[in-house]
Amino acid sequence: YNKDNAYGGREAESIDECFARFLRESKTVKRAVTNEDYETMIRKTPGLMIANVKVIPVSELNHHDFKFDDLTVTAVVQPYTAGKRKPLNKAYLSNIYNYLEDKKLIGSRLNVLSPEYVAVSVLLEVAVKPQYINAYDMVKAAVMDYFDKFCNDFGKPVRYSELYGIVDVLECVKQVQSLTINTMGRRIKRSMYGDLLMPVNGLAYLGDLKISVITMD
């Protein structure tokens, strides 16, 4: 029995408040089940600054040199490094594995890959219209913009036709006379269309850029 009257506390939760709390908490990811859950949980790893995370489906791993099975979840994690291209260090890996250990399904395994940064060299020969004295800068900005916007996802290929088209449609360009893209990255393949195919953890970035501009009436 109570020796004294109860005091303090708060009013009982109403039905509406209970339902609102249910909706709010139901959106909070607390267990790693789906690929999206793993990505969310990895981003929440305490003490880490993470720039990008992507869980690679098993179907995509079939075509690459990675060990996998149906119980292994493979995630590529890019640390935040203020614009520098650095791999994951041991502290990052340890923290991620420890944080996810009691949040993933029993029997499942997590495999964390570090990004593979792939430098792509571009050689361009462009004929430009004579009235555009800043044509070189316009072409250079278009190439840099392509790599910043279209090549910032893990495994995304550098497509020859996309880069060619972006330069070719510039107002200052009369004609793209030649375009060459190359890389010294490991495990890089080239498609029949001249595209550079990245590994699943590959991140392409612009390396050496050489632009030759001639004026054409």
Q: Tell me the strand percentage band.
A: 25-35%
The whole-angstrom Rg is 25 Å
Strand line-up of the largest beta sheet: 1-2-3
Uncertain residue ranges: none
Strand count, sense and barrel status of the largest sheet are: 3 strands, mixed
**Estimated helix fraction:** 25-40%
| Number of alpha- plus pi-helical segments | 6
Order of SSEs: HHEHEHEEHHEEEE
Q: Count the E strands.
A: 8
Shape: elongated
Mean pLDDT: 88
Distance between the termini: 100 Å
SS-derived structural category: alpha/beta
Task: Record keyword descriptors for this entry.
3-stranded mixed sheet
Give a brief description:
This protein has 217 residues and is of the alpha/beta class. The chain has helices spanning 15-26, 35-43, 58-61, 90-100, 135-150, 160-168, and strands spanning 50-56, 72-79, 109-113, 116-128, 173-183, 189-190, 196-197, 202-215.
Furnish the topology, listing elements before pairings.
Blueprint: H1 15-26, H2 35-43, E1 50-56, H3 58-61, E2 72-79, H4 90-100, E3 109-113, E4 116-128, H5 135-150, H6 160-168, E5 173-183, E6 189-190, E7 196-197, E8 202-215
